[in-house]
């Protein structure tokens, strides 16, 4: 018996991509499909986006790029964490992938390579060439033709954060040094900051999967799990390990066959969706079980019924908010191990 079912909605992916294009009509919309397309599966996500007209994809790892190339033979595929460690330029040429130079070490290793893609760190402070050391960066790129220049905003989800404008100013300074390069600063939330952040390309991730980063998007997926047990308990009885949660009233408890070992993020304060009713999570999940209060559905819920852990009604963004996380993409991406 399969206890999990992940459903991906290709028409919603297409809708979200075309909505992003309509919202930013003068800028190319690329698709970020790192971590197995945010946990939804390359096979489920890449072909619908190709059919929608997406011509550029971004991944983090070489093996991800190989999988996307198989599904999108005519697209441009950029690999962000390229040339770090043992991988070589030839590896990328063999697969027709574009490595993004993100370290000065990689630039030094291939001093004659031209028409390169370069990632600058303008304040994200996790990856990229340190853009604050301008003399060193410009020296490393001296005499090199740069075909693609990118950076990543660190606070785009908070429009009033002054760091957004600081990063924009620093990136714009470098952009002027490479006038013929295609440029990209914004991802989904960055695109909402204003046209000055758009440049030549927006790397859309969260918005493609249904995030409120772009109003009007549709949820790209639903995750369903089965109920394994149903049982009435009296007030004062406990649930789970260490008597950590004590019921305050008579409750019908449903054990959903999903837990922390399955990559879910649910905890008290979150819900599951059953027949137009949101059932509250009662206690933190164990490895494979999630206890929910099914009292409100007592007249119609049964063992082996399905509940949605997220869907178009209880969206990944809503779940993320209830779980104390940033955005719905953080919920989806944990499904990469699912």
Polypeptide structure, described:
By secondary structure, the protein is of the alpha/beta class. The chain has 2 domains: 10-209, TIM Barrel (Alpha-Beta Barrel); 222-337, Lyase, Ornithine Decarboxylase, Chain A, domain 1. Helix content is 27%, strand content 24%. The chain has helices at 10-23, 34-38, 42-52, 62-71, 89-94, 104-109, 134-140, 163-177, 188-191, 316-322, 328-333, and strands spanning 4-8, 28-32, 56-59, 76-79, 98-101, 116-121, 129-130, 146-150, 182-184, 201-204, 221-233, 238-239, 245-246, 251-256, 271-274, 277-280, 290-293, 306-310. Strands 2, 3, 4, 5, 6, 7, 8, 9 and 10 form a 9-stranded parallel β-sheet that branches. A hairpin with a 2-residue loop joins β15 and β16. α1 packs across α3 (42-52). The longest helix has 15 residues, at 163-177. The chain is elongated, with a radius of gyration of 23 Å. It starts with a strand and ends in a 5-residue tail after the last helix. The mean pLDDT is 93.
């Amino acid at each position: 018996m399969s206890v999990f079912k992940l459903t991906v909605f290709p028409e919603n992916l297409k809708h979200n991509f075309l909505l992003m294009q309509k919202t930013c009509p003068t800028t190319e919309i690329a698709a970020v499909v790192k971590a197995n397309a945010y946990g939804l599966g390359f096979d489920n996500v890449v072909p619908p986006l190709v059919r929608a007209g997406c011509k550029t994809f971004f991944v983090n790892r070489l093996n991800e790029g190989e999988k996307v190339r198989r599904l999108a033979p005519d697209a441009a595929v950029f690999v962000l964490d390229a040339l770090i460690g043992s991988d070589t330029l030839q590896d990328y040429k063999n697969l027709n992938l574009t490595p993004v130079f993100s370290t000065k070490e990689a630039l030094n290793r291939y001093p004659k390579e031209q028409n390169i893609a370069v990632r600058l760190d303008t304040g994200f402070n996790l990856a990229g060439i340190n853009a604050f050391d301008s003399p060193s960066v410009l020296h490393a790129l001296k005499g090199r033709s740069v075909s693609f220049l990118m950076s990543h905003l660190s606070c785009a989800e908070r429009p009033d954060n002054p760091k957004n404008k600081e990063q924009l100013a620093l990136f714009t300074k470098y952009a002027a040094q490479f006038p013929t390069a295609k440029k990209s600063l914004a991802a989904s939330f960055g695109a909402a900051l204003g046209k000055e952040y758009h440049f030549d390309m927006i790397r859309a991730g969260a918005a493609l999967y249904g995030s409120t980063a772009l109003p009007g998007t549709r949820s790209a997926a639903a995750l369903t799990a089965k109920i394994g047990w149903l049982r009435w308990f009296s007030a004062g009885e406990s649930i789970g390990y260490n008597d950590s949660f004590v019921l305050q009233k008579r409750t019908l408890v449903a054990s959903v066959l999903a837990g922390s070992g399955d990559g879910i993020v649910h905890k008290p304060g979150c819900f599951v969706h059953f027949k137009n009713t949101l059932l509250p999570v009662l206690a933190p999940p164990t490895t494979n079980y999630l206890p929910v209060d099914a009292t409100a559905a007592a007249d119609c819920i049964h063992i082996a019924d399905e509940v949605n852990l997220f869907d178009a009604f209880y969206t990944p963004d809503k779940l993320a908010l209830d779980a104390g996380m940033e955005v719905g993409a953080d919920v989806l991406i944990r499904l990469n191990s699912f």
